[in-house]
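Model it.
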Amino acid sequence: MRCSLFLPHAIVKQTDDPLFLCPWDAWRFRVAYSLLRALCVLSALCVSYFRMLFSREMHADIQFMQEALAEARAAAAAGEVPIGAVLIHNDAILSRSGNRTIRDCDPTAHAEITVLREAARLLGNYRLAETTLYVTIEPCSMCAGAIIQARVPRLVYGADDPKGGAVRSCFEILSNPCLNHQVEITSGVLAADCAAILQSFFAERR
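Modeled.
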């Protein structure tokens, strides 16, 4: 006897052919095939689940980046370089700001620094665990250092800064293996909008 290998079932047939699958082999074949189908279904479910999580996270990233863009526009209206930032804690905005270097006569008052300071004050802790920082432009070396010191777990930014970015453009501070804290980075969220605000701001001043 031999076994027909047509899927999904292995059917045992009587034959004089010396090459055959006995009933036990046919049963094992059915079990193996059933397990394979179950794994395929499980894999499809896992892919769908992670796609859902990714879609939800991307939606949140866009939503909060739009809030950072609103801060950038407010900064531009005040005559500041239009960069905005928001810090998220427990899925809500904890602090928000645009650049304030001119208004505060403070060279360190970048949008990122301002929101980190305010968030630390509100939480009563200089370590900002379980937060995400959204900023319209790739942070500079000063802001990247502050992100490390605050132990911010995740950074989301819009456009790269080829002349001063310290995430990947000029330096790679946040992923430097020599440091005792590395940051999860998502870049390019609403990058065109973030870059356009800066380009328009400087074009009007030429």
